[in-house]
């Protein structure tokens, strides 16, 4: 592909340095996505302009006016510190007729709601955990059909904000406490879901219309204590030392062929049901009876070279540079779809 001018939008604190040398392992870990994407796109000849944005839209419009990028590479996960505002930034790019990578705003809105996305998926008869929503300011009353153990989460946050070992509850008293914790400390409505004991699987999907699905990936905690449930808490996801101590890793999931095929089929259907485009990671739990349950869809998932999405693409023979190039090409094509 010809060299492109790419405006890369990211959080101002994550604008990458020229090198990660000299940083602590934790700091390098936190900066890796932006660093990997910018460096790799440059290595294949693109002219990449990183721009840190968070509170103002003007810098985006100014940069687009001046630079006239062929495409915006969207690495934003929040705006004004609000996770739900990333879709508004993408809508703004659409108003400016500027192509962008990753998911369209409708897909983001639909998939970010942990209740809404499950309702849509369940309607299509794909397994989801049973759940109930507990809005802020309302008394916690568990519907009798909803059985313990439950896991209590924020209805809209991601990156496991508010998720810890104490999120799994086995009594009405603990449920009420944890819902209150989400209301007060995270500041959002809460959702309590049937806790699916078992394996955690990630399916990476790429495409707008025709979809590529990469090999299913699995979260493992090799040094997990006997009886300790496997949960991707904030520490499991983001704390490098904790990951080392507990043997946290992700790798290709060893699954029976028929189950692997069913997962791929369901992942493609879910991607379409939730109107996703670009690239997304769909998360599932697999119980001991071999039943899988859809947990959530992550539009514009973590795309650092060493994390699940890129690792599973690589296992399918797609190099990191090729993966980023395909994400850019899909963004350019998506624009043509919305303009036609
Ligand atoms: N219903 C559930 N059953 C079992 N584990 C769950 C369930 N819901 C969430 N978890 C655990 O908590 C993690 C984070 O939950 P998730 O809904 O994906 O929130 P986030 O958007 O913060 O990633 C999951 O990756 C999984 O390990
Ligand atoms: Mg998740």
Topology:
Elements: E1 5-10, H1 25-43, E2 47-52, H2 58-67, E3 71-74, H3 86-95, H4 105-112, H5 114-123, E4 131-134, E5 150-154, E6 168-169, H6 172-186, E7 190-194, E8 199-206, E9 212-213, E10 217-221, H7 234-238, H8 240-246, E11 248-252, H9 257-273, E12 279-286, E13 292-299, H10 308-315, H11 320-339
Parallel strand pairs: 1-2, 1-3
Antiparallel strand pairs: 4-7, 5-6, 5-7, 8-9, 8-10, 8-12, 10-11, 12-13
The structure holds adenosine-5'-diphosphate and magnesium ion (MG).
Termini separation = 23 Å
Assembly context of the chains: single chain
User: How many DSSP-defined strands?
Assistant: 13
Tell me the fraction of residues in β-strands, as a range: 15-25%
Helix content: 25-40%
The largest sheet, given as strand count, sense and whether it forms a barrel, is:
6 strands, antiparallel
Structural class: alpha+beta
**Residue ranges: pLDDT <50 for 5 or more in a row?**
none
CATH architecture of the largest domain: 2-Layer Sandwich
Overall geometry comes to globular
Q: Report the average pLDDT across residues.
A: 94
Ions, cofactors and other bound molecules: adenosine-5'-diphosphate, magnesium ion
């Amino acid at each position: 592909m010809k060299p492109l001018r790419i405006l890369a939008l990211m959080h101002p604190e994550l604008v990458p340095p020229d090198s990660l040398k000299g940083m602590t392992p934790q700091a390098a870990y936190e900066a890796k996505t932006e660093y990997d994407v910018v460096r790799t796109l440059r290595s294949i000849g693109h002219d990449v302009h990183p721009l840190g944005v968070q509170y103002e839209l003007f810098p985006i419009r100014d940069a687009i006016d001046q630079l006239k990028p062929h495409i915006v590479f969207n690495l934003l996960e929040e705006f004004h510190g609000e996770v739900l505002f990333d879709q508004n930034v993408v809508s703004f790019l659409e108003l400016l007729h500027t192509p962008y990578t990753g998911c369209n705003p409708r897909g983001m809105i639909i998939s970010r709601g942990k209740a809404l996305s499950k309702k849509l998926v369940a309607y299509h008869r794909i397994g989801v955990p049973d759940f109930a929503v507990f809005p802020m300011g309302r008394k916690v009353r568990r519907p009798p059909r909803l059985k313990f153990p439950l896991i209590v989460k924020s209805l809209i946050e991601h990156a496991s904000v508010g998720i810890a070992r104490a999120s799994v509850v086995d009594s009405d008293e603990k449920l009420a406490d944890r819902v209150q914790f989400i209301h007060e400390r995270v500041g959002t409505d809460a959702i309590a879901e049937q806790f699916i004991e078992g394996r955690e699987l990630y399916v990476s999907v790429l495409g707008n219309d025709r979809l590529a699905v990469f090999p299913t990936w699995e979260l493992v905690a090799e040094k997990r204590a006997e009886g300790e449930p496997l949960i991707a808490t904030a520490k499991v996801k983001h704390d490098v030392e904790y990951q080392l101590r507990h043997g946290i890793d992700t790798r290709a999931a060893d699954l029976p062929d028929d189950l692997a095929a069913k997962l791929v089929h369901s992942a493609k259907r879910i991607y379409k049901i939730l109107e996703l485009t670009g690239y997304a990671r769909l998360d599932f739990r697999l119980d001991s009876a071999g039943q899988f349950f859809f947990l959530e869809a992550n539009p514009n998932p973590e795309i650092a070279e060493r994390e699940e999405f890129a690792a599973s693409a690589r296992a399918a023979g797609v190099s990191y540079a090729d993966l980023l190039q395909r994400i850019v090409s899909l963004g350019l094509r998506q624009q043509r779809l919305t303009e036609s």
